[in-house]
Design goal:
Blueprint: E1 2-6, H1 8-15, H2 22-32, E2 37-42, H3 43-72, E3 74-77, H4 81-94, H5 98-112, E4 116-121, H6 125-134
Parallel strand pairs: 1-2, 1-4, 2-3
Helix pairs in contact: 1-2, 1-3, 4-5, 5-6
């Protein structure tokens, strides 16, 4: 089973039609909709996605984010102790911001579970470089 791990920046850009990366985000989302593909995001990164909609439109806007997650079958991975430890280790090794460390830790988590073809979708150059370093193809 293929797995796509989303960074919040992709989902935020998808939600924001005025976002400069919106078209790229739409393409990322379309590519993730291939059959037998699991779409995941950590709970930390889910929180990041919610901040803007909550600021602009309150609970109703946050509900639209949840509707998008349901519509596209994006699973939210619970942050348990092993994932938190892995994120801390990623942060220590790469100096990524903690939310970005959670994205990469989630991808590593998927690798460790034996899921095939784990792909991290991000627009963040530093996160992509850290992914290539820690999860070489």
């Amino acid at each position: 089973m293929a797995v796509v791990v989303f960074d919040a920046d992709v989902l935020i850009a998808y939600l924001g039609r005025e976002d400069a990366s919106h078209a790229r985000a739409v393409e990322c989302m379309r590519a993730s909709l291939e059959p037998a593909t699991r779409r995941i995001v950590s709970a930390v990164n889910y929180s990041e996605v919610l901040i803007g909609p909550l600021r602009v439109g309150g609970a109703a806007a946050a509900a639209r984010v949840d509707e998008m997650f349901v519509r596209f079958g994006i699973e939210t991975i619970v942050v348990d102790r092993p994932l938190a430890q892995r994120a801390a280790a990623v942060r220590e090794r790469t100096n990524l911001k903690l939310p970005d460390a959670y994205v990469l830790a989630t991808a590593i988590h998927a690798d460790k579970r034996g899921w095939e073809e784990v792909r991290l979708e991000t627009f963040d150059v530093a996160l992509a470089a850290a992914d290539a370093q820690l999860r070489p193809a």
